[in-house]
Structures are given as C-alpha cells and as structure tokens.
Amino acid sequence: MKIEQQLTNAVIEAVKALYGQDITAAQVALQKTKKEFEGHLTLVVFGLLRISHKKPEDTAQEIGQWLKDNTTLLQGFNVVKGFLNLVIAPAQWIGLLNDIDANAEYGITHPTADSPLVMIEYSSPNTNKPLHLGHVRNNLLGWALAGVIEANGNRVVKTNIVNDRGIHICKSMLAWLKYGNGETPESSGKKGDHLIGDYYVAFDKHYRAEVKELQAKFETEGMTADDAKAKAEKESPLIKEAHAMLVKWEAGDPEVRALWRKMNEWVYAGFDETYKALGVSFDKIYYESDTYLVGKQAVEEGLKKGLFFRKEDGSVWADLTKDGLDEKLLLRADGTSVYMTQDIGTAKLRFQDFPINKMVYVVGNEQNYHFQVLSILLDRLGFEWGKSLVHFSYGMVELPNGKMKSREGTVVDADDLVAGMIAQARQTIDEANKNPDMTEDEKNEVARIVGMGALKYFLLKVDARKNMLFNPEESIDFNGNTGPFIQYTYARIRSILRKAADAGINIPDTLPADVEISTKEEEIIQHIADFAAVVRQAGTEYQPAAVANYCYELVKEYNQFYHDFSIMREPDAKKQLFRLVLSRNVAKVVRLGMGLLGIEMPERM
Predict the structure, then answer these.
(1) Over the stretch 235-271, which tens digit does the pLDDT of each residue have?
(2) What is the pLDDT of residues 212-235, one digit of tens each?
(3) Residues in contact with 171: Cβ distance below 8 Å, sequence separation at least 6, in sequence order
(4) Which of 80, 131, 221, 420: CA 20 to 30 A from 90?
(5) Which CATH number fits domain 450-596: 1.10.730.10, 2.60.120.1440, 3.30.70.1350, 3.60.15.10?
(6) In the chain, where does the domain assigned CATH 1.10.730.10 lie?
(7) Cα separation of 495 and 492, whole Å?
(8) Which of 523, 589, 580, 556 is nearest to 93 (CA)?
C-alpha cells in the first residue's frame, strides 16, 4: 500500500480515537510538504477543526503525536499553524521501493475485455501532399494520447480519416496529366506522396501565372484590381478544368476514377513509410470517398425526422440557435456535401464498426467551432457518445521564419525532418565517441532512437493547447529538458547495472528495512512513486506533456543524486544494493513513461 494511503487510513483512525467521530478519506487533505519546511507530506487540518473544536495548531499537534505513538509511519513531525508536516520513517520508503520494484509495470493499468472503448482519431492527411511538421505533431500527440489513455485501463482503437477526395486532389491529378509526362515514383526515384505534392505545387504555380495574366487583361478593360483578380481566379482555364474533373469524379467517370486510384496508391505507399519512421500506426483507416455518401444519407434521414430544415434554394441546414450558435450548412444547394457532412458519415460508420464509449478527435485548434457543432449534431442524430466527444485541440507548430504553406512548397517536410534529426544525432554521437567499440549498425540504430526521441520529446513536452516554436538544434541537446538528456540518463543507469552484473553483484528481490538512506534518496523514491498519479492525471486531463515533464524531472533529480553519491564504489554493501535497486527503478519508470509517448530508450549511447 502506498504511504499516502497508509497515512490517510491512520489519520482516519486518529480522528476517531481523539475526537470520537468518523471521517472519510476525502476529508483527509494530504499534500507534498513545501521545500522550505522539514517533512515529506503535509496534513492540512483546517477541515477537521469543526470536529476537534480546537485551534489549528493544537489539532495538528494532537494528530501528529497520535500518529507518532500509534503507527510506524513517522520518524517525526512538526506543526506550522494549521499544517502538520510529517517526516516519513526510512523503513517506509524502503518498503515502498520494494513494492514498486516488484511491479514490472508500476503505474500502468491494463484494460480488460469489459473496459470502456475509446476511439482516437489522428493524422487526417490529404492525398495531394506529403506529411509535414504540423502532421508530425498531430501524429505524435495522437499516438501518445492513445498510450496514456490505454495505460489508464481503457481499450483504445487508433483510427485515421484520409481526405482523399475534393478539388485539392483534382488539382494534383490535372497537373500530373498536363505536366507529368507519365512520371511515376519508380521513374523519378521519389516517394509517391512527394511526387504528388510536387504536382500540387506545380498546379498552383501555373494557376497563379494564369490569374496574373487574366487580371492584367481585365484591368486594361477598366476593372478595379480587386474585381479583376476575383474574376481572373474564377475564369482561369486551369481551375475550370479542375472543377470539371471533380464533377466527373463525383459522377464516377471510369478514367478519372482510375487515375485517382493510381495516384492515391502512390501517396499511401509514401505515407506508410513516414508513419513507420515516426513509429505510429492505426487499427482502422477510413476514407472520405467512402464516408461522404453515408453522411449525406444520415443528413437526409435527419431532414425527414425534422432534425434539420431545407431552404428555398434546396440546401439543408441545422438550426443551432437554441444551443447558442447559428445555423449550420450540411448540404449545398446542388446536393454536394461539406466537411461536417463527411464527419457525420465517418462517425456513423465508426459506430457501426465499434462499440464506442468515448470519441477523441486530435485536430488543431482552428477547428474548435467545427467540433462544437459536430458534438451537438451527433447527439441530435442519436450517437451515444456525441455529446461527450472530446476535441483534443492543439496549437500550431511555428518555425523561426514563420508559418508553413503547402501550396507554395514552403513546408517542413516530415521525411526531411526525420532524416535530418537522425543525421544530427549521428553527428553528435560520433563527436562524443563514448562507445568506440560500437559497430556501424549499432551507431545507426542509436542515432535513429536518439534523433526520433529528440523530435518526439520536443513536440510532446509542450502543453498541447499552446502554439509552439520548433527548433531542431535545441531539441537534440544532451543537456536540459530534452529527449536525449533523458535517454542518456537511462543508458547510464543500464551501464551501471551491467557493471554490477559483471562484478557478480546479486541484487536481491527485497531490500532489508534497516538500510540507512539519505534525504535525497527518499525524495527520489517519492518521485518514482508519483509516476502512477502522473499517468492518471495525463489520462484524465488528456495531457501527454505531464508524462514527458515528469520523466525529465525524475532524471534531473537522479543525476543530482548520481553526482553526489557513489554506487559501484560504495563500500557499504547494503547501501550499494539499495542504490542499485533505486537506479533500476528510475530506469524502469522512465522507460515506461517515455514508452507511453512512443519514445524508445537506448541501452547505451
């Protein structure tokens, strides 16, 4: 049993013995003792004064003395006004460490067949361009969120919705037909998603040139610059051809559909490579080309039931004024669907496929209003989880030189980013030359683990709701709040444990209770024990950053200990074994915590 639980039970007994009244665990207010006071945990007694009918100081003193006299939990206590600071007995810390050491997956709660099912949607790429830095943050957040939610005892289904239809897809297809000369991923040596992305950029380049030329023509005919530009954008032959291709796609034209399928397959093969490099995957992938018709059908059914209404032009709307919002378009006058319709269709298919208890959408904060509306509409349509859906809204990733633009080809490509991070890690490892006996394959694998760890940790340590500035050089640093710093500490501990094994030191399954330990060592045990609460918090509050920063604080504390205390050279055998067990559990918890975030730990660096 945890020390906090034992203390809570003991305080309940103390209050009954001292004041003759029963209290619940919820009435026992325990918190960590502030740094400036002596103690590990503090009991706040103000809530107990109506029971004791005494001053705060007297109440705290009496409870503290009772605990000291009637339990083995305390080494001592002190009172500061209404705060009872409790100094936990060393034997209790040893017992707590033994309990944690005995649990290979301390802090993790595994789901059962009866656990709630949480579906998490992330990634949501468009098939007209490769993944970029913004997608990287989305994928890593989705994967980490799935990890912490599953570690809280939920069944998790990881899902993706691919935006594989629409005018943006037709732009890439048309540009390939016009300028591609039959180019393929094989003939070009490019990943399929990069190849298609190049044609999306090519379309925009030629479209802009057409618009510029037409605008100039319209201006010479006496139109204002703004009117001339607006007309040019509509009259451009390229954009007209793209819209005509979209109409053919909607009508199921065999040639257009065949080209669409071929180019999408190129893109999917490219996406799969990127997902593999990022270490993310999905249990089920949905495609908008399959879901938009289901959404239209659901809206039509809702219209018949009086849930929605049709305007004179034939468009279908939802009236959300009673919910404090406005009216929302669901089907255009020409019968075509909007994003909201597609999301309704995707939700309907998912609900048919899985018994969802909770739905979490990992989508940027620019879509906050969209998901507020979607929640209301799904609830109105009868989806049990509609009202309680979670929009895991995250901020944008910005660069030192501003925002990214896909059309202009000014994005930070995900594949280039991954390769760059790994190359930078390899350079750092070579310069450090800590393990000259490593083979080339080992160095490359460590570089991959460290480079990806640096990238993932840098993007995950920030509160997801905030916009963030990405700095690759800062992320790869082996000092400070970075992935490589945490990985290096882990590798250091693993090295210590290997040395202990080579020296023939047998680490016991259970430490004796009479080991003399320092305050710093007590603090580290307390910090290790906090992992379970951090995992719960991260899952409850949808905050993977809480786990990331916990791991950093733990290894920072351990490094201070490592600097001040000897392990392999400690002459006292009991202390040495204790410190090995302590180190082993720091490494274990860090591996578990970082593992929830999808970050691997190297055995050596």
Answers:
(1) 999 999 999 999 999 899 999 999 999 999 999 999 9
(2) 999 999 999 999 999 999 999 999
(3) 128, 200, 203, 204, 207, 242
(4) 80
(5) 1.10.730.10
(6) 450-596
(7) 5
(8) 523
